[in-house]
Amino acid sequence: MSNNMFTHEPVMLTEILDVFSGLSGGVFLDATLGGAGHAHAVLEAHPNIELLGIDRDEHALAFARERLSVFSERVTLRHARFDRIAEVLTQTNTHSLAGVLFDLGVSSPQLDHADRGFSYRHDSPLDMRMDQSQSFSALQVVNEFSAENLVQILKENADERFAGRIAKAIVRSRPIHTTLELAEVVITAIPAAARRRGGHPAKRTFQAIRIEVNHELAVLPIALSSAIDALAPGARLAVLTYHSGEDRITKSIMRDAETGGCTCPATLPCVCGRKALVRRVRTPKTPSDAEQAVNRRSTAARLRVVERLDSGMEM
Fold first, then answer.
1. Is residue 109 part of a domain?
2. What range does the domain containing 170 cover?
């Protein structure tokens, strides 16, 4: 994949810029750098901000480095999975963050380029690795996981209602080597009436396998907690999610930080002594109708934002 092909439309860019409009200095972390659309806009809007960008996809990093070259003196990029935030901060001698952005899920270039094996619309070898230096891929999931394990990931990662039928069909059709082979197996496993609604029949299966390959949900709580811990007082964390699993985890981590983990009954005074780490920031939760009309991949997006409190407030 050539670097100049790694482009995408940043989702909810206007809303993200509004969330971070108060930036006046310090280090801003883009934990899912991708095509650097959000990062470029933040750097352009805030001349005193330095950017620390991380991504597990080396193709994305190569493109981002080129795209952000005009800001090179203010940009540091690292190849890392976002659950290594604490490690990256130590390596770069970064003591606190002025803001953090997570734009979760798969990027448009990863979907659009057949050689990455993410899409049910292109014929390619099963892959789906965001970090191509890892050996574990969709090929192993599809051809080596038991039916029971396949059912589990289809339900947990994609809320697939026909998980049992799809898992049995996959096991029965092995070996499966390509994306179109897998898509056809899934399509034939789903009842005809269900195929006619809700988009491509294989969409949820591909999502579930991609999440498993890249451990996306497993590492998200660690990444979000690390980001909250690193925020300077008054700094904000913004997270764009694209499916229910991501959003449930994000909401849970933010709620826990918002309450400090307090479990005291809401109708009684708090006696546990826990302190709130963040406050919720109200912002538009979904893209505007105009954005959804021109960028179909934005339609599933949901934005959640919290702001770090000074030193923790008692509940």
1. no
2. 116-214
